[in-house]
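Exam review. A common question shows you a sequence with its structure tokens and asks you to describe the fold in words. Practice with the pair below. Do the first one on your own.
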Amino acid sequence: MAITFDLFGTLVSASRPDDPAEALAEELRTRDVSVPENWEELYATPQVDIEPGRELSLPDHVRAALEESGVDTDSPGQSRRPDGPGSGEADVVTEAVRAAFDRRVNRRDGAGTAIEAASRRGRVGLLSNCSVPGLVDRTLERVALDGRFDAVLASVDVGYRKPDRRAFQAAADRLGVDVTDLVHVGDNPETDGGIEDVGGIAILLENVSLSAVPDRLSEVRIQ
């Protein structure tokens, strides 16, 4: 048996930009990237064809939207540059995306206790839908939950979004269990509840409070 947790809305609460397109436009302009006048429309329109269940990184979407209007995101003034201590290098589009979405975040009451309870039942992982590279790791650091998991999987790295079965399979593979032996804790029935379609067990916060997750986990029996 292994247990995975969702991140945003489950272990942490996080603020989002009121207007994501405008927040991104502002960050792009500060990095000398020309923003088209029809940016709101471009941002809201899919630019890359992907199969259902696949994840497209937000920087790739933004880059494609800019290029649709003839904006060269690889010009000399927009070359790769350091993205902060310990984070390697990132192009300016990725920098802008991270800056726009790296907002205030708070660890939810009971998060640490729930993770500790899970670790007494088996290996513990994090499985989060997140299209912003590096944001999951950054969030875990900010709420002092980094180092608490045997595996951390963000959809932008895995390539698939919950509820796609391949996202849960990737988590099960990393944790060394069959997907039917996976228990997933999350807040969204449509995405996190997808574990049940592959034979696993969902613990949803619409039915169980985060503080009650340890008791719920103690009741779980894997056949």
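Now try the second one, then compare your answer with the model answer below.
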Amino acid sequence: MLTPDKTGSLLTTIDNKIATVQFGHPASNSFPRVLLDRLTNELTFLSDNPDISIIVLKSEGNGAFCAGASFDELLAVSTLDEGTRFFTGFANLINAMRSCKKIIIGRIQGKAVGGGVGIIAACDYAFATHESAVKLSELAIGIGPFVIEPAVSRKIGKMAMSEMTLGAHEWKTAYWAHQKGLYAKVLENQEELDLEVISFSKKLAGYNPEALAEIKKIFWEGTAHWDKLLKERAAISGKLVLSDFTRNALIK
């Protein structure tokens, strides 16, 4: 059962050097700005926690992993500044995941759309089930996956990114996402998913944390400019969300 709280929920548990961070929202685990900020702050805090080595990122319930941006908040945007601030929330989250000193493992139990795909791409390693299809629907509502594009393209390549972006109404299967590199492994069901996540996390947690931190730096080499780039991309989305096209698409 998903949280009834319209601002969403965030819960962190720590066990044997593994921090499990679970987010949730009643609208298919979508993100209002307040929840984006909470998750960003939590990952930043955990990055400097010497008592943990690994972070597992998961969402609440048995349905969608993440439906991306909150449509209610997108409809409420009335100025360029408000729009830019909202999409900067996704920029800040992806940058926090990128710069986090801990390896982040994604547990993906269901479908992901838009910003949810960006979050998966910003994980260092992701496990999924066969139900974890993905879609970049932004063009269909008059905007584009501008903020998340660098993270997604880094994982799956420009050609696959183009295929997803232009096929804005099409779901890509979990096996397609695995083939392109978004998922490290696809499991048959959530029980197998959890067993795999637990086993893999425990193995990593037994490694030298300094070595893990150093290898993560290497994984993300060449992305320091994202601090500026993603905020610039947020301004593009912030402008487009004010268009009549997007307003009409969100209302439908």
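Model answer, second protein: The CA atoms of residues 107 and 194 lie 8 Å apart. The two ends are 26 Å apart (CA to CA). Full marks require stating both points clearly.
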